[in-house]
Amino acid sequence: MRYQVLGPLEVAGDNGIIPLPALRHRIVLATLFLEANRVVPVDRLVDAVWAEAPPSTARGQVQICVSALRRAFAEAGLGDVIVTRAPGYLVRTGADELDLLLFERLAGEGRAALELQRYPEAAAALRSALGLWRGAAFAGVQSPLVQAASLSLAERRLAVLEDRIHVDLQLGRHHEMIGELMALTAEYPVRERLRGQLMLALYRDGRQAEALDAYHVGRQALIADLGLEPGRDLQRLHRSILAGAAELDQQPVEPVEPVAAETWPAVPVAAPAETAPTPHLLPADIADFTGFEAVVGEVVAALASRPEDSRPASPPMVAITGKGGAGKTTIAVHVAHLLAPQFPHGQLYVNLRGGEGRPVTPAHVLERFLRALGVPGHAMPEELEERAEMYRDQTSGRRLLLVFDDAANEDQIEPLLPGGGHCSVIVTSRVRMTGLPGVHRIHLGSMDPTHAQSLLSQVAGSDRITAEPGAVQDLIDLCGGLPLAVRITSARLASRPHWSVSQLVLRLSDEGRRLDELRHGGLGIRTNIALAYDGLSEGAQRLIRRLAVLDAPDFPAWVGAPLLDVPLHEAEDLLESLVDIQLLDVDKVGGRAPRYRFHDLIRVFARERLAADEPAPERREALRRATGALLSLARLAHRREYGGSYTVLHGEAGWDLPTQLSDVLLSSPLQWFEDERVGLVTAVRQAADADLDEICWDLAITTVTLFEAHSYFDDWRETHELALAATRRARNRRGEAAMLYSLGSLNLYEQRFEEADGRLEQALWMFRDLGDRHGAGLAMRHLAFLDRMHGDLDAALSRYELAVVELRAVGDAIGAAHALSNVAAIRIEQQRYDDAERLLGEALSIARGVGARRVEAQTLHRLGEAYLRSGDLSRSGASFQEALDLVRAGRDSVGEAHNLYGLGLVELGLSRHEQAEPILAESQQLAARTGERLLSGKAALALAEVAYATGRDAAAVQRAETAEQLFKQLGAVPWRERAAALGAELSTRSQGLL
Q1: For residue range 737-753, what is the model confidence (pLDDT) as tens digits?
Q2: Dihedral sign from CA coordinates of 532, 535, 536, 541
Q3: Using only C-alpha atoms, what is the Rg of the chain?
Q4: Computed from CA positions of residues 782, 787, 791, 797, in that sequence, does the dihedral angle turn out positive or negative?
Q5: How confident is the model at residue 253 (pLDDT cuts 50, 70, 90)?
Q6: What is the DSSP letter of 499?
Q7: CATH superfamily of 293-443
Q8: Cβ atoms of residues 213 and 180 within 8 Å
Q9: At what angle do helices 913-930 and 933-949 cross, to 10 degrees?
């Protein structure tokens, strides 16, 4: 052995150890030995000697050092050891002359024998390799670069030592190994492989309790030093020892004496390789790859090879993003195999494990890639920056295809980008990779149903798939368009030819077992999602669980704050972290706030974790806060639409709203209601199921703001029937009365006057019994309207007057304005137009004073009626038009129908029949579409008058009869009488003509 670096640096000549010159010379020689038989650039030698502050004469001083070393070697009879080769120098040596090279060779031989389970040979080789060490590598060489390499070599030695201990345990030497392992675990307390070897040796020596104690000592060290629990392998060994697993009791192989190191044959000096190795690291392609043709074409086009004389400044790069199981890896590997012939210098692949929460470090990837490109281990730089520099140098002249699979973020990718534009890069990630410069991004959504069916046919058999088209569509729907889920169901069908597709659909339909069913062999949706989930912070894990509390198909960003009971900004940051790794999808329509949603299978997983990790009381409390927050926002939206908490009843439930929520989300109250409509209805249902009766009824009645404006009568009925049942179960009499009142209001809108009468009378009785003047005033206001519909104007006036008193007493200005407006309607019928105009002026002033635009529009409409009846058609038309503009701005279809009817009557009064007819026809169509049957009848009657005035008697008779029949069904006595009178007049006219 002429050259020794595994300890103090020594060179042996013919007459013994050569005394080396000054420290600077030793650094240069050590750096050359680190890359024996490879050229070391002068700049690297300069960095090794002077680190970050070399003098201007550094290169010349390096040449002087090399000359001095050459003279020393020549005087010792070693010959021409250091060779000049641009852009630097190299040390030429054989593996039997440099202990570092011999160590690497013996360690490699030992590893190879170990893989073949030739344990005696492995033990001999590994012991010989370790026997070369005389202390720390390059001891005494004071250079940051050399010392970094020394640390790397120390790690390499420790790995070989662990391999040797593993071999000795296989050979049954557990008893002899215990003392050595105890010393090693004391020196390296967080080295998990050594810890496991000590546990196994103690267990096999019959010392189970000590083996378990060794585990607990190691676990405490890991927690104290690193804040980590033991890894899976160590935990699995711990469980096996606890269980006394039979596989731990391996029969030892008959040991043999180790082969002495000096018996290894010498190897001649190896000349530098003429050509670099060509790595082919791609995983196998998918044999039954199908679908994604457009995506594959897009990737191929983006990575199209360039002529040799056209070298781009940076490598073409494609980032394929999507949620776990979306097919990212499958596409990347498939494209890489398609393009492999275009990259003659090889293909590199690495799974970066970003979705698992424990991403592979760039330094580790660079070590692996550099080895694959021909860089020996002893020449491997320690620092990430130096490895990246070497990697860029190694790749700069090659045509390589690099696949970075499952990247965590851009920071993990940037050090791995190659040094030349002739390489190409494919990245897959759950993150959208917007920070990579020049990247062509492709985001994968759901699998096309046609492609999904094609995959099912290819794997499970086309006959089975074509035989049950309906079941196949159900199967694809249950998979949520996720390619991994489709592949698993395909494989399950293929492995069970006796199953029908319908049978698998039935099994998947049980949400509680769906993830169990979506598992086959090594594939599993639950495992795939769990990798991403396990990598989340504790807060993000809690948020995704609690989002699963909600049954709504989508939700706004703010909902995380009440679910977690944390500030809004904190919840939004956690929510965006779930979006970043594709555990949540986000939709944004126009300028509205984004909506977030689960993929169906991720929601199933989140609900599993919710049930497993959160007690029922915590789940209920999270739901209470979320629905309470929604209620508080709905109250605020109602207040902004009506100018205050008018014409609505509230309970005691709610949640304190952050200021930014009220300022941003409710700039357009009715639009907010529209956006949250499905969520509001779902929240009422969930509150009812959870016996949150106070939230349930309050949320239902507050949301009438939307139901009333846009005629969502089915939603109105569903929410209130649920809330009515919930309040009755809880014996919440005020909530029950409120629901009866609101259902009675719904019956009025639907012109179901008998049902309305019964519910409103019951509600009025309950409110009076409870001493609730507000509820009583609102109920009397509607009962007065029923009196009017039945033709009892005196009773209607009496009740309206009482309602105004009660509503003013509790401060419900808009409720009072409604009552005043309805009194004005009676005065109009009584032809007391001055009184009607005065009352309507008062109501209009109230509406404008509080900013209640819908009530302002309703009052303007009533004022238009007053002017119409008094014959002031000009002012009538202006009032109807102003009201029409307001309701159209608020997307109030019901109000639009009423004001079109008023404008039609104005045109009819002016005898402009051609203009009146299309306006009235539009009003009738809108009324029919929104369920306004009374208005539909009134428009039909007006159209009958238009037909009568224009001489179309047959059409007039038909329209009058339609109107009369409708008024009869509704019990609208005055209108039925008016229609009957017109019908009689038309009949008389027809007889006279005859």
Answers
A1: 999 999 999 998 887 88
A2: positive
A3: 42
A4: negative
A5: low
A6: -
A7: P-loop containing nucleotide triphosphate hydrolases (3.40.50.300)
A8: no
A9: 160
What is the DSSP secondary-structure string of 626-669?
Answer: HHHHHHHHHHHHHHHHHTSS-S----S---PPPHHHHHHTTSSH
**More confident of the two residues 987 and 366:** 366
Q: Strand 595-597's sheet: what is its strand order? A: 555-556, 595-597, 585-587
Q: What is the spatial distance between Cα 22 and Cα 571, in angstroms, rounded to a whole number?
A: 62
- CA 893 to CA 881: how far, in whole Å? 15
SS3 of 861-915: the string is HHHHHHHHHHCCHHHHHHHHHHHHHHHHHCCCHHHHHHHHHHHHHHHHHCCCHHH
pLDDT in tens, 329-348: 888 888 888 888 888 888 89
Q: What is the DSSP letter of 276?
A: -
The token pair that represents 309 in the structure block: 């004389």
Give the position of tokens 């912070």: 537
pLDDT at residue 990, rounded to an integer: 46
Token duo for residue 372: 């694959």
Q: Pairing between strand 10-13 and 3-4?
A: antiparallel
Give the three-state DSSP class for 419: coil
Cβ neighbours around 142 below 10 Å, total: 11
Q: 76: which residues sit within 8 A by CB, 6+ positions away?
A: 11, 13, 14, 15, 18
- Angstrom CA distances, 21 to 5, 11, 63, 138, stand at 16, 12, 14, 15
Q: Is 98 helix (H, G, I), strand (E, B) or coil?
A: strand
Which pLDDT belongs to residue 994? 25
User: What string of H, E and C letters represents the secondary structure of 49-87?
Assistant: HHCCCCCCCHHHHHHHHHHHHHHHHHHCCCCCCEEEECC
- Tell me what pLDDT residue 274 has: 39
Q: What is the DSSP string of 942-993?
A: HHHHHHHHTT-HHHHHHHHHHHHHHHHHHT-HHHHHHHHHHHHHHHHHHHHH
Residue 852 burial by CB count (10 A; 0-12/13-18/19+): exposed, middle or buried? buried
pLDDT of residue 281: 82
- Domain borders along the chain are 293-443, 449-528, 892-993
Distance CA 507, CA 523 (A): 18
Instruction: Report which listed range, 5-14, 454-463, 711-720, is most confident.
Output: 711-720
- pLDDT of 433-445, one tens digit each? 777 777 888 887 7
Residues 6+ apart with CB under 8 A from 867: 873, 875, 876, 879
Cβ atoms of 803 and 784 within 8 Å: the answer is yes
Strands 16-17 and 10-13: antiparallel
Contacts of 309 (CB under 8 A, 6+ apart): none
**pLDDT at residue number 761:** 94
- AA letter at 296: V
* C-alpha–C-alpha distance, residues 345 and 449, integer Å: 39
pTM over 0.70: no
Strand arrangement of the beta sheet that strand 10-13 belongs to: 3-4, 10-13, 16-17
Q: Which two tokens stand for residue 762?
A: 């019951």
User: Burial code of 875-887, b = ≥16 C-beta within 10 A, e = fewer?
Assistant: bbbbbbbbbbebb
Helix axes 23-34, 58-75, angle to 10 degrees: 80
For 708, phi then psi, to 5°, come to -70, -45
Signed CA dihedral, 818, 823, 829, 835: sign only: negative
User: How far is Cα 593 from Cα 557, in angstroms, rounded to an integer?
Assistant: 8
Distance CA 867, CA 236 (A): 87
In this structure, which amino acid lies at residue 895? G
Q: Is 1 helix (H, G, I), strand (E, B) or coil?
A: coil
Q: Which two tokens stand for residue 400?
A: 């390589």
pLDDT at 356: 61
Question: Selecting from 1.25.40.10, 1.10.3730.10, 1.10.155.10, 3.10.250.10, what CATH number does the domain 892-993 have?
Answer: 1.25.40.10
